[in-house]
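Example 3.2
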Amino acid sequence: MRVLLTGANGFIGAHLTAALLAAGHQVVAAVRRPDTFAVRFPEVEAIAVDLNRDTAMAAWLPRLAGVDAAINCAGVLRGGRGQDMAAIHHQAPAALFDACCKAGVRRVIQVSAISADAEAGTDYARSKKRADDHLQVLDLDWVVLRPSLVYGEGAYGGTALLRALAVFPFVTPLVGGGRQPFRPLHVEDLARTVLTCLERADLARRVLEPVGPRIETLQSIVSHYRGWLGRPAARSLHLPLPLIRLLCRLGDLFGRGPLSSTALAQLEYGNAGRETGFAETIGFHPATLVRTLQLRPAQTQDLWHARLYLLRPLVRAVLVLLWAVSGLLGLASVENFALPLLIAAGISSAAAGVASLAASLLDLAIAGLLALNWRPRATALLQLAAVAGYTVALTLLAPALWGDPFGPLLKNLPILVLVLVQMILAEER
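Structure, written as tokens:
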């Protein structure tokens, strides 16, 4: 079967791609950057798609030529910064579903979310539900899948945060009392579910909730991960919800990570779903979280990832502080440090003043770009260039600084390494 798959470059999408290939299907990966995807899956046909813009049926009809089925598993937890949630979750999928009707592609699978209800009160849930509702009124052999928490070895976002909490030193931080319920489902069991829905005609026109066999609380999930990573048990630290809400609002403003008001609202709404006989319907029993972790022992890189995930925001915050303070101190000490140094090197006072001001403003600009998490790789390269430039310039103007006991130039070397670490940690794909 030739299958069009949106969101193929994401966590779930990549596992679906692998599962479809292993089952003998041909995959047409609809992704934003086909060249990048082709590096991961060189044997898969990849086509350029931007769900932010491809919201008309005409955009999808040519892409469905020769396609037997379509699977939509694209999704984002928050909008903004080039991510239009309404377009990605509702308008573009609806256009794809309409195009499937016109092109005669009858089998369509929508990977939604267990919290895709209006009662959840988030744009994420409402936009997902609109796409689900749109698909269900069409004359297609559709299946809507609403999985609970999907986890796996390569997970990022919310499940990566759970593993990071599991290695927190001395205590285990938990949201509220840590009693929020889930039915965690391994990503391979979700992929197996999708393959089953492709093959079985009796599952057409049904809404299924792929869930794990056991309800786990937030506290128990983190505890299982802590044991999996080889950490001894630790006392729980229940973080009050007002504090978490404040941190999530800061996450809304400054980051793209798992801390956001939407994520918190979805957590509070619930992710356990209803006991609907999923295993009996789908024909196999998904593995429990404990069983899955036992069959996949943690490796060194798992422990590294969990620990570095907690350090990632701290590294960025330290760099923001470094550049902001450097810029402000530069403005405050122009007369006492920068101007005398530059003038003593033979630079005119006017040029020295301009150079000092430009350097301070550059530092403040870098601090702002870091705080906003704007194009992390480009911002990191700018930092590297600035630090290297300052180091070379000061070496030429005042080489004696290398022998200063406070190491004003020597400290630039670990700063360069820290910037490189931040650039690597910021790249999720």
